[in-house]
Amino acid sequence: MRLLKVQAENLRPGMFVAELDRPWLETPFTLQGFVVRDDEDVLYIGRYVDYVYIDADYSGSNLFLPEQPKQKTVIKERLSIKADFEQAKSSFNSASESLDRVFSALNNGAQTDIQVVRESVQPLIDGVFKNKEAMAALVRMKESSDYRYQHGISMAVWAAILGRHIGLPIDELEKLVVGCAMCDVGMTRLPDEIFQQSSGLTEYQRQMVELHTRLGVQMVDENGNADIELLSIIKSHHERFDGSGYPEGLTGADIPLLARVAGLVDAYDAMITPRPYAPGVSSYDAVQELIKSKGVLFQDALVEQFVQAIGLFPTGSLVELNTGEVGIVVKQNEMRRLKPEVVLVLDEKKEKLAALKLLDLADENVSISQWITNGLQAGSYGVNSEEYFI
Prior knowledge:
The protein is built from 14 helices and 9 strands. The protein is an alpha+beta fold.
């Protein structure tokens, strides 16, 4: 890529913006790289940056002429989403059932067959490559009676999304996803009551839980066919960038890269997942917590890349508008991440709408009067996203 510095006001439709004059997270742009589509985009970009770097060799400008208005209906959008979600659901369920069998076998003293785990998570990797938004939305909507089992599958999906986004080679991506799926296998050796109690952990219980990383390594390594990178993910996914993690208090680059990725997605999924002792938070709030922890608990660049990969208001998440209306995010905006497409399901009084309404918050006729004020926890106001789209 040959980069050329261009003042924002000198941008033209068809140019590919590859870098900004400031961190991406300080802007509303959703991807690290986007095509300028029209003069309105030029004005919008100029509100947030003084100059950019374009790819001088980009040759796809003729493919990105200003779009003609499209006739959209909620029904068509729902049918499209439903089809994507059904494919994602099949991949998710296949992986979940297979991994449950692996965990049960391990808990009963059997040895680990890593090849079975690889085969179990392959549908997740395939699902992310086919439609990462559908997979991500499905993970947010799924419920499980046992956090230990569901969490591994969810981690695997988030890891696949982030790993693909940062361009990991396919063999490294596979190791990452398998490792994340197995991260909490050591938890199966701990007493069930620890995970069922509604109060916080005692100091003794906390120490027991921290043993799960070493237990997991021991369980997976017993049959001797797990490579060192996979074991390092299981062992080090609770290490933190500032040295405050466990089991060894590693810092910075001493934490293996794949373990750093695993630790980040582990923390995100833990925050958004309800448990007996704590409710889950909205995806938006979880992302804000990750941003606050940049450079402290987690590597700056990984946090930024993860936010770029899933969005501030991810597909499938519940949001509230300034009007009081409540909707479900159904599609990301390629450039304006604060303005996705939303299907409104509740009116300003939080009453169920008789007919669903599709709202493109990036539409200039909409954006001046309606915008997202905050993300909502799954299930808020009795809204079940899965009911609408799966």
